[in-house]
Amino acid sequence: MRTLTIMAGGGGVRFWPESRKTRPKQFLSLDGHRSLLQEAAHRALPLFGWERIAVVTGTEHGALTWDQLPDLPRENLFLEPAARNTAACLALSAALWLKRDPHAVMLVTPADHLIAPEAAFRQVVTHAFEAIEADPQAVVLLGVQPTRPATGYGYIEVASDSIANRASVRAFQEKPDEATAKRFLSGQRHLWNAGIFLWRADRFLQLVERYQPAIAHLVRQLAERAPAPWTESDQRAFTLLPSISVDHAILEPLSHETESHLMVFPANFAWSDVGSWQAWPELWGQDTQGNTIRGPHVGMETTNCTIQTCPDHLIATYGIEGLLIVQTPTATLIARRDDDQAIRQLVQAIEQQTGPAWL
Known about the structure:
Elements (H helix, E strand, L loop, with lengths): L1 E6 L28 H13 L4 E6 L3 H7 L8 E4 L4 H16 L4 E6 L3 E3 L1 H17 L4 E6 L9 E5 L8 E8 L3 H10 L2 E11 H11 L1 H13 L6 H8 L6 H10 L6 E6 L2 E3 L7 H5 L7 E3 L2 E7 L2 E3 L6 E7 L1 E5 L4 E5 L3 H15 L5
Parallel strand pairs: 1-2, 1-4, 2-3, 6-10, 12-14, 13-15, 14-16
Antiparallel strand pairs: 4-9, 5-11, 6-9, 7-8, 7-9, 8-10, 16-17
């Protein structure tokens, strides 16, 4: 059985103040129509139907997920007992799919990506499914051809001098410096890690048992009792698990094995992870002054800025450069445009100084 698991548990901190704890980035719409979560489900719907699509998210966002995806079967909402990064949430998802079908194959996608054209995405995914069905040990990643020396993305190094339909994975490089990113761009042996994966559920759990046995042990116990609600004991036990990404926990150590069966399929579609406000110029373009403007704005001597505001709120600027200005009805952000990690630190400071009210 081919399945889809959509990861919708992130907090979207670097997208504050649009993204809030009660309504994180994945539940927002960028164009006034479907939310990012809805887009993630509907682009894959022709391949699966609702009965083979699951969403994994935190308990606090269960109702919001059902509100946005009313056709999602109730049993296909996989609620995490606690937030412990992607290794634990995907291990739990694999255990739950495996309980239904010992031959389940998983496509895993984040909820907050933009992909076009959708038909190209479905074509690459279909080829990846076929590769796994031919080799049950295969673990497949989708990689995006770099278009610029991005320092905020992870990179996949392939083991051959050319990338055609697929390639073996040699190594991973997480968020390189600018000089290294430029070398990757010119070398033609690196792809951006899109965070989209495919594997058999049983194969993935075997890898979790090898590299993260504590995670594997607990998720198997939880899956045996599902769909019973998680207890306080379950939540405490899940909280004690390592908070680690699937890349660091599973894929990187797997790439060091001689017979890893780890491969990457190049994506022939446009992709953006909408990870932070730094994605805005790429998504919406820039004017002749290097500005990306969304909403009413009048500016003089304003260059290389990103400005986002409500339709009924004017932002006027004079003599500024390289700033990010985001206005919402309840909070306004002003920061350097090129430092999205600072926004994460700022959000932490807001919580420490004012509590969760503004988050």
